[in-house]
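Workshop exercise sheet. Pairs work together: one partner reads the sequence aloud, the other fills in the structure field after running the prediction. Swap roles for the next sheet.
Pair: D.N. / O.F.
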Amino acid sequence: MRSARRRIAPDPGPRLLTVPRTQNAGSHRQTERCFLNTRISRVGICFLDRPDARSQVALSQQAEARGYESVWICETRTARDAISVMGAVAHQTERIKIAAGVVNTWTRPASLMALTFATLDELAPSRMLMGLGAYWDPLAWKQGVIRRRPITQMREYVEVCRRLLALETVTFEGDLVQVRDLRLELGEGATAVPRDVPIYIGATGPQMLALSGEIADGVLLNGFTSLAYQAQAFDRIAEGAARARKSLDDLDLPQVIVVSADDRHPERALEIALRMTTMYLGQQPHIARASGVSQDLLDEVSQEMGGWPPRDGGIEAAMPLVPVEVVSSLCVWGDLTTCREGLAAYATRPNAYPVPLPVTENYAEMIKAFAPDA
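Structure field:
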């Protein structure tokens, strides 16, 4: 029987740790970094697979009232589709930007994606952000999707979406995306003007980051990535931007940050963060690998979980394998003040801002605690 690695006991003090890429994230010694700045001038909010759809709409209204810039609706696993929730949020809000965080470019053709966002823009003019992602296996494979040449596919997909949203008549014979003599008709009563829908790419790997810098209006940096990773990601994005004669300053750079906060029981916040981290290490290991988490640990977690979807009890069985240092490098957890400090640490540039993704159930409390400074 394999013995589980003993989990390191949590330190109740403020902490946001980073995992050096060259070391084994399961066994190395960490250097603690404490952040005392709590100033946040721009902030979004992101909903993963929780809470329920109606609650996401109500919480989006609360975020708007407290000055949040954007709400990002995820389309993760097979939990909930993003577009339905975005439409409901659009109908119930007036100012907040509404973003897909993200929808994949494989299960909806580019023509349908452009039409979908043109329709959403009709509900909430100039408030929609098209967040696109390259998807992941085995989920894509389970649906019969073979993800060939994802960098090329994303480039072609974005070009077609842009041109259709500009109300061009488009013929495009790409290697992976094709449309022929196609134009968005738009329905009766819709104004026939180009749609103002910025395109963001949710990118993790170096090639997709560089492509995003080149062709996107913004880059949504993934949750479950470290602060050290952010700096490396900005370098790759800047390389791509330079190819298009742009700079990093020309792009919007929101960063999803997984947050587990509990003022009364910080140890419970850690337990929830640990469970979510374990699930994502086993489910989408490429995300944590980009932050330097060791392949050995990722393999152990995946084996113990039983793949994806996990076997019954698989996540709980794998949790003891994951050191608290890894959780702390990929998430922000603790009391609300500590978590706000952790979020503020990611605002490293004027165009980079935190997008907390709550995993504890005190959503309204977190929206209040993480609101932008006046």
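Discussion prompt: The CA atoms of residues 18 and 227 lie 6 Å apart. What would you look at next?
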